[in-house]
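Could you help me review a protein record that somebody else here produced? What it holds is a sequence and that sequence's fold in token form. I need someone to confirm that the token line plausibly describes how this chain folds. Take the sequence as given and treat only the tokens as open to question. This is what I was given:
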Amino acid sequence: MPDPTLAGLLYLAIELIGVASAVHVLLQGRTPQGATAWLFFLVSLPVVAVPLYWIFGPRRYEGYRGARLQGYAVYDPVIDSLRASGERFFVDAPERPPLLVALERLVRLPFLSHNRVDLLVDGKRTFDAILEEIAGAERYVLLQFYIVRDDGIGRRLEAALTRALERGVRVYFLFDGIGSAGLSSAYITRLRRAGAQINAFATASRSHRLQLNFRNHRKVVVVDGELAFTGGLNVGDEYLGADPKLSPWRDTFVRISGPAAQAVQLSLLEDWYWATDELPDWTWVPKPDVAGGDESVLIVPTGPADPMESCSLLFVGLIHRAQERLWIATPYFVFDQQITSALQLAALRGVDVRILVPKNGDHAPTYLAGWSYFDEVLESGCRLFQYTDGFCHQKVLLADSDLALVGSANLDNRSMRLNFELGALVEGVLFAAEVASMLEGDLARSEEVQQGDFARKPLHFRLLARFARLFAPIL
């Protein structure tokens, strides 16, 4: 039998760790409700709560924040060079509405002019465009994806990168260590043998190896520092519609030609430096789009290492900015109170608020939790649509007739506070009109949800939805 004295001392030690963790909650808790729940759990059941808290509880990615502060001295010269050579593309602050100036300050990047932004609808068009640009690369290709699979599209990408390497193009490839946990070592080995630099983004903080709750959710490709891609697609056959349960897969990417590509590259530089402690020799001379594009673009990298909740502030700001129209497409409808209140206020002041979500989800807990939020936004006048023609995974926001955001961030707590995300905020009536036309087509393939639909669901469904909502902070 175990020694009762030893067992008692062990339990006392766990209780003390639980109390210390509770102090950490009081100092770092993100919301009163969440802090109260953790405090109760840590004190009443520390054996279970302590490991769960240190895996899922902390809100800040401290290791990355420390590396960022140290890294400033390393890549400050890069930023200085970029500002000096790119200043002629900065959009003058006096011409910016106050909200857009605030967003520039939030992400510490300016709106940049002389870009061309092409809307890429769905996986085939997106990957065809990416592979075409890789085939034409002259100096280097940078890639960053949350999920990379060794499947059909993964091997097509590998083949394109291998051919680029053979003609002397450098390849830098970053993937998320958890999102791509299933990626075969053979895939990585083949690319490394071909000459690529391929590394995992260490999602666990260097100072807290058990912190597994953070993700690098960005999806980025940069070619020669002049072209960039970003949006919602990962590297996997399901994103091309190969999963029969979720086919056809509906998603959106953008291709950016012009100075804004350098801002995408700057975001990737931070992640690369964190992952490798290396500062690559990339080109830092912004160039205007060769075809004469004149879109103004703000690249918006957000994440848990930021001093403020940048992703949440971004969406709340854009929602408040809308005066006539606010259309949002998101695969996961798990809003926090800030987002919910902002949407309700927008609808109450007469904005045409439409939210597009999938009818069938790919993650049951998130799908169920979303249903519990429906009536809260519907009662204020928001309209909610469920996409019926496959799975809608795009992350798009359209505000009025001149502002559109395409990126990797979902409207859920994970994207708002736990994930590294990146989006392209485009100011311009022509691009906004393209996005509006695209979303009109999506809405035409959707069913509108009515207030009370949730109440008409079977009792077991409503109970499961309410239970799933309890886990909204980590879904």
In short: The first helix runs from residue 4 to 28. The chain has a mean pLDDT of 86. The chain has three domains: 4-56, 62-89+118-288, 310-474. The CA atoms of residues 143 and 221 lie 4 Å apart.
